[in-house]
Amino acid sequence: MAVKVQTTKRGDPHELRNIFLQYASTEVDGERYMTPEDFVQRYLGLYNDPNSNPKIVQLLAGVADQTKDGKCQRNFWTDYYSSSYPF
Known about the structure:
Blueprint: H1 13-23, E1 26-28, E2 31-34, H2 36-43, H3 54-61, E3 72-73, H4 74-84
Antiparallel strand pairs: 1-2, 2-3
Helix pairs in contact: 1-4, 2-3
Keywords: Membrane, Metal-binding, Repeat
GO molecular function: calcium ion binding
Organism: Nomascus leucogenys
């Protein structure tokens, strides 16, 4: 019996770039970044309560912060979502 595997279409890099720029609030040397709050609270929509523990936001954002410098870079974000995010 043959097994049918469902594939996911890769995200369009141009569209992903626009989404990233919509949420990235920080610019350093002409490069835009998402802060932990941008990624977790604005993009994911989590922990938006004013009483949310900021350490939890930092911990969750660490998933997208490859260099652990408090900034989510566009190239990592775009690469990740272009390989796994369905559009």
